[in-house]
Structure formats: C-alpha cells, structure tokens
Amino acid sequence: MAFVKFCQTNSATLFKVQSLTQITSHANVVCFRKYHNKPGIGDLLGASPNRTQPLPKSTKLFYRLGRSENGRIGPEVLVRSDGGTGDELQPFQYEPDIKRRFPMYGLVNTLNYDEMMDSKDEYVRARRNAASNIDEAKKRLRAPEKSRVLDVDPRCGNRRYDFVFTDVSKSKNDDTRLIFMREKDGTLRTADQDERDRINWKYFGKKGHVKWIQSVFSDMDELKIALGQFAHPYLLDELCKVRSEKDATYIKVHIEVYRDVEKRKCYSVLQDTPHFRGFVQWLVNNDKVEGFLQTLLEADRGNDVGEFLSVYVNERPSSDLAKKLSVALEKTTKKKLKNATDSDLLEVFQNQNSKKGKGARSKVTEKSKTRQ
Questions:
Q1: Could you give phi then psi for residue 225, rounded to 5 degrees?
Q2: DSSP secondary structure string, 203-246?
Q3: Helix axis angle, 220-228 to 232-242, nearest 10°
Q4: pLDDT tens digits, one per residue of 206-243
Q5: Cα–Cα distance measured from residue 295 to residue 320, given in angstroms and rounded to the nearest whole number
Q6: At a CB cut-off of 8 Å and minimum separation 6, what does 122 contact?
Q7: pLDDT in tens, 251-302
C-alpha cells in the first residue's frame, strides 16, 4: 500500500474520507491534509474524476509530465541553503506557503487512480488561479479603462473633496461595476483603470486581496534577480494570489517566467506545481517544444516523446516541426501525419535529431581542419 498526501475539502466533488477499518488489499492508504483556512487549497489534493466532461488527452499528458514521481525533466536544480544566503548547495524543492495539521486517512480505489490524480491537478490549478493557456488569456485581454468626461457643472463641485459614485449591487463585479468621479471643479467623468482598481479594492475587496503588487513584478531588473535564484514557482504563486488572467501584469510576468525556464532548460523547477501545465501549453502554442522533447529523449523517455508529438501535431499542424515530421513520415513509412502512431513520430523525430548531431559534429571538424 502506498502513502499519498491529499487535501481534505468540503466540496462534494472530492473523494470522501472513509474508515480505516475498510482497508483492503486492492486499495491505497491516502493521507488527507488541510491547507489554509479555505478548503481545497494545498500542494496535493484528491478529486474524483468528472465523467461528464473528461479532461482532454493533452491536459492529462501535461499533468503526468508535471509530476516528478514520473521522472524529473532536465538537470537537477541546486540552490543555496538558508533562503539563498547560505554556503551549501541543496536540491531545489518546491514548498508552497501552507498550514498543516495532523493527517486523517481514507481509501482510494486504484482502478481510477490516474484519473483522480489528473482531476486533483486540475482542481488545484483552478483554485490557485494558475494559468492554463496564457496565450488565450492574452487574446481576451482588454485595454485599460480610460476616463471619459460626461458633464461639467461647477454647481455640483466641492472646493474640498472629490466624490465617488459607484454601483453597490451584489450582481456586479470588479469589471462590470459602474464607477463615476465628480471632481472639485464639477467635472463628472468615468473612473480610469487605476481609480477602478483602488476603489474596488477599498470598498469591495475580499479578504486577503492585496491592493498593490510587489515591485518585483513591475521592475524587470528585480524580476531577473529573482529568476536567477530559481524563484519561478514562488513568483507565480504570489502573482496568482493578487491578479487574474484578465490583468496585463499577470500575462507579462507569466511569459517572462516561461521564457526563462525555456531558455535555461530548468523544467524541473515548475514540476509538482500548479504552473507546469500552463508552461507546457505555452511551449506548444509558441512552437518551442524541441528543447523540451530533446531533454525527454536524453532521459530515455521515448514513450512520452511520442505521445507529446502526437498532441503537438494535432494542435499545431501548420508548424515547422509538424511539416518536417510530415515530409519525413511520407518518405519512410508512406503515412500521412494524421494516421501516424506515437512510435512513428518518435522514430522520425529521433532520426532528425541524430542527423542534426552529425551535422553539428561535421561542422566542428571542418573548423578545426581550417585552423590547422
């Protein structure tokens, strides 16, 4: 029997705690933990699969790759001890800011164990406001609200104060709420984006909502320093607490973090976090998957590479890599790309990478001969 940590919640969709006396040989013992005061937020969680809306194949694959128990992706990341100030180097380990209590125990049927783990990851990602597809969020991003003058009446002004008029209906949210400003000279106008953010936070802010985000998210020099210390998941954790996908800062910081991980090939820094799925989806959307796939090949994870390529060519059939694979498939197997199996895609990709390696080595030898 394997011990797996989970989070207990009050949601009816989650796996219920059962009695220890019901343990049998075909079940895993599961340790339920509760994090934060809000139910359902923690580093691990058990959720029963949604049979009416099953997760897509790509989502399941991304979540499976994101679990380090299935294999670390890329080199081991080492960080300094004592929060980056110590002299010793130790393996990077993601530890979210959580509150723990003594565990309770329950049963999980192993027949749907993988599905339950995927549903757990999806539930945690949604509850933590982690990005699933930052490129789609970028398309939905609205321009900042600009102020519009509606009326000018000096008789309605006040020499000492500006007045704020806002809709307090519970049906309104921060985006749809009407907010008007009456200035001292009697000008009546709509609130701009900064004023909307300030008023929504002051009068309608929820518990734990932060008015201003940390300077690290607005100062690129500070952000680069933090990324150099492998703070990628912690930066995204803090950002997701205070901003939504509709915010420009949310999108900008996610893209900067993703670019840094892809450039340094430190994929393992986002494993076991709710941000891994969004990162891999960004790689697919921007055709930056070759380095990721090469890393998987070097780790002898050919099955994962084949499955990933199948997902990739399905989502990005017009990409350069998909076109190269299509041409190579027709030459070697006489198959169309849509009819290729995972093993076919893996074999073609391996052949292409071996040719690239030979070409690079031949160029190096030619340079050495000319120098001689």
A1: -65, -45
A2: HHPPTT--SS--GGGT-HHHHHHHHHTT-HHHHHHHHHHH--TT
A3: 130
A4: 655 555 567 888 888 999 998 988 999 999 988 888 77
A5: 19
A6: 47, 55, 59, 63
A7: 999 999 999 999 999 999 999 899 999 999 999 999 999 999 999 999 999 9
